[in-house]
Design brief:
single chain; alpha+beta; Aminopeptidase; 2 domains; seven-stranded mixed beta sheet; three-stranded antiparallel beta sheet; 9 helices; 13 strands; 36% helix; 27% strand
Length: 278
């Protein structure tokens, strides 16, 4: 269920990371390089065995040759089913960032008291704004970037730590890449326009037969109810009825984002793990 096993989840960060790949002992291995540091964002893509010790040892050998600080060498986004195999081979396995997975029908309907405030926000937006909700087109790409810059500035002003502003700056590259490579990456996108201005946008992709991943979502923070509206409107589209689950990805360790994602009552939080050398 983890989004990291999709190509697009890595490619949109290619302006920030240098990606390298190779076949090690019959397994596809992906490496991400940031400055002088190298790590593996996903485990080796395995053929038959639940874990291939030779591919793993080869991967760590490559990372350790590059990394001056060996503690940086790691494999991220390990599925829960693989953890025992990593542990049995002597690796230290620690919890990583989980992903919030919802039942699509819950998000589309927002039924019951737990979603009362979400419904109220949607109703406020519909009542107070004349808007258009429509598919993303490449001609909207520049408008989406302008909106992201407005959103980023607001978030920087309210940041309470040094980590958040850096994350916001890095993420702008991913948003630009998604807009530029929208068709090639086969993304699904929606925008909300008010007075012919893009005030909200959403990008996502099919993860597997019954799951859809929300990759990016930005709305004008001054427009009350827009964030709740675009999320609900997308999940209730007729074309989404074939999906049972919506994966809204992780929270990047940000407490405010964690609270928002929990408020939508996830069906499950899919765990991921990181492996390091002992």
């Amino acid at each position: 269920m983890l989004s990291a096993y999709a190509f697009v989840s890595h490619y949109i960060w290619s302006d920030l990371f240098h990606f390298h790949w190779g076949i090690l002992d019959g397994h596809l291995c992906l490496f991400a390089q940031y400055g002088d540091y190298l790590y593996m964002p996903i485990p080796p893509i395995l053929s038959e065995n639940p874990c291939a010790s030779t591919a793993l040892s080869s991967g760590f050998a490559i990372m350790n040759r590059i990394n001056k600080n060996k503690a940086v060498s790691r494999i991220e986004n390990i599925d829960a089913a693989q953890t025992e195999a990593f542990i049995s081979l002597g690796y230290d396995v620690k919890p990583g960032e989980g992903e919030y997975v919802y039942l699509r029908e819950d998000l589309a309907n927002l039924k019951g008291d737990p979603y009362k405030s979400k419904r109220a926000m949607c109703n406020h937006f519909i009542k107070n704004y004349r808007y258009s909700y429509e598919p993303f087109q490449t001609r909207f790409a520049d408008d989406c970037i302008r909106l992201y810059e407005v959103w980023k500035k607001r978030k920087r002003e309210t940041a309470i730590d040094a980590f958040s502003p850096a994350l916001l700056e890095d993420a702008s590259l991913a948003h630009r890449q998604a807009g530029r490579q929208y068709e090639a990456l086969q993304l699904t996108g929606r925008v909300v326009r008010i007075n012919n201005r893009v005030e909200g946008y959403l990008f996502g992709f099919k993860r597997r037969g019954d799951m859809f991943c929300i990759l990016l979502e930005i709305t004008n923070p001054d427009i009350r109810g827009l964030a709740q509206f675009i999320f609900r409107e997308f999940c209730r589209e007729r074309g989404m009825e074939g999906f049972r689950y919506i994966n809204a990805l992780g929270d990047s360790g940000l407490e405010t984002l964690r609270r928002v994602k929990l408020s939508y009552r996830p069906s499950k939080i899919v765990p991921s793990y990181t492996a390091c050398l002992p």
